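hey
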């Protein structure tokens, strides 16, 4: 199917913020808690009864995203547990019917727009609450023989109607939605998972519905049929991604600690530096990073996560122009470095700081000016005098066409120093 999805803002943004937030934030032990602990609806009900996030302030989330240089935010309007953060007319299982009593999606959308951010909605295809969803390998009661027998006559078409109806609600009730993140199909595991996929979602028609309601909306690739972008989960591809031999827009989603939902006792926190490197590595391969945060049961981003985003904000404040709208360069970067290219600027991101000299093969004669981004100090190229004889000053072994820059001994105090090269022409 042809698409008129607007991928321009997406490539410009390069960084987005993913928000996993819902009833599981109260359990505070991973968003799959209902599945992991084989909970029944009754056992999961206390989270619905006590959902009262008194500090819900999506404007603060949006500001955190914006300060970090993100261009969009994606909120879990419904996750696998089936709980809806908007005022859906198709179920009572919504935030409006909890003590909270509000339409969280409406407030979220408004907050993003107020901060000038693009709006993304995550919608789980899997649903562990709806009574038309046939029990499968992901279902919390997958091993409960009595429950399975009692629900054996469930007809996926009942769920399909609900799914299409809810997507229609989300795409008609909240103005322009820029990005829809469906999650997920698993036909590759028919044995264990029950193998739900495109046919179960009536994916072709669902996609047509999205295109008809919001032609510009970007749709991800987890409906079980190709979408506008590819979404590697928690891994970095080796090179720019392709589909059927042609370049395709992609976005890696990543957690801060391995869990998407708020996970109080999880200390597997990734360093800000490693996440900044992840972002850079993606841009160097024409990709985006959708970095997740799991706000807590009161609706707040916890201190550790906030610190991480603040660190990213500080780095982006100095280096955003090597990220926004940048992409892969046609040269091979030196060891432990990544190139990004935007127009006639080539950015060298140094994951480790070389001693005094930086050798850039293939760039001799192609650079008219070089500077360190942290302080705009000029980096002077090393001119090798071919008439000098002493072996140890000839920089022997460098391939022809190598540009060598002289670096200060002291590494700038930033997680990843960046050199900006002004090219003689746009490659
Ligand atoms: C997986 C998980 C889910 C998470 C998502 C993010 O599909 O099931 O919990 O929301 O990845 O991409």
């Amino acid at each position: 199917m042809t698409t008129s999805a607007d991928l321009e803002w997406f490539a410009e943004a390069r960084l987005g913020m993913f928000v996993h937030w819902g009833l599981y934030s109260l359990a505070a032990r991973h968003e799959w808690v209902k599945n992991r602990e084989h909970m029944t609806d009754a056992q999961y009900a206390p989270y619905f009864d006590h959902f009262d996030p008194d500090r819900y302030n999506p404007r603060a989330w949006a500001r955190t995203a914006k300060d970090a240089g993100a261009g969009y935010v994606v909120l879990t309007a419904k996750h696998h547990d089936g709980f809806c953060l908007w005022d859906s007319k198709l179920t009572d299982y919504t935030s409006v019917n909890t003590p909270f009593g509000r339409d969280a999606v409406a407030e979220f959308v408004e907050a993003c727009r107020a901060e000038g951010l693009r709006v993304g909605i995550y919608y789980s295809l899997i649903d562990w609450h709806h009574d038309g969803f046939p029990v499968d390998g992901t279902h919390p009661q997958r091993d409960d023989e009595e429950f399975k027998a009692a629900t054996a006559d469930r007809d996926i078409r009942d769920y399909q109607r609900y799914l299409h109806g809810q997507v229609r609600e989300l795409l008609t009730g909240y103005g322009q939605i820029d990005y829809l993140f469906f999650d997920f199909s698993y036909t590759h595991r028919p044995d264990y998972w029950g193998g739900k996929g495109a046919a179960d979602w009536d994916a072709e028609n669902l996609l047509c519905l999205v295109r008809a309601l919001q032609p510009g909306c970007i749709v991800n690739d987890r409906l079980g049929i190709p979408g506008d972008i590819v979404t590697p989960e928690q891994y970095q591809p080796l090179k720019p991604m392709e589909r059927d031999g042609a370049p395709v827009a992609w976005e890696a989603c990543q957690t801060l600690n391995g869990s998407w939902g708020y996970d109080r006792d999880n200390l597997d926190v990734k360093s800000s530096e490693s996440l900044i490197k992840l972002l850079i590595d993606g841009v160097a391969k024409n990709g985006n990073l959708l970095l997740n945060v799991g706000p807590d049961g009161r609706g707040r981003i916890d201190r550790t996560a906030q610190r991480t985003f603040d660190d990213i904000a500080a780095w982006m404040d100095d280096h955003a122009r090597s990220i926004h709208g940048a992409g892969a360069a046609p040269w091979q970067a030196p060891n432990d470095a990544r190139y990004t290219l935007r127009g006639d600027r080539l950015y060298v991101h140094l994951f480790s700081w070389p001693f005094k000299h930086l050798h850039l093969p293939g760039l001799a004669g192609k650079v008219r000016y070089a500077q360190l981004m942290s302080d705009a100090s000029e980096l002077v190229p090393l001119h090798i005098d071919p008439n000098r004889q002493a072996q140890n000053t000839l920089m022997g072994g460098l391939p022809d066409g190598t540009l060598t820059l002289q670096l200060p001994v002291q590494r700038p105090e930033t997680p990843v120093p960046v050199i900006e090269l002004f090219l003689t022409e746009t490659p």
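The chain has a mean pLDDT of 95. Residues 269 and 422 are 37 Å apart (CA to CA).
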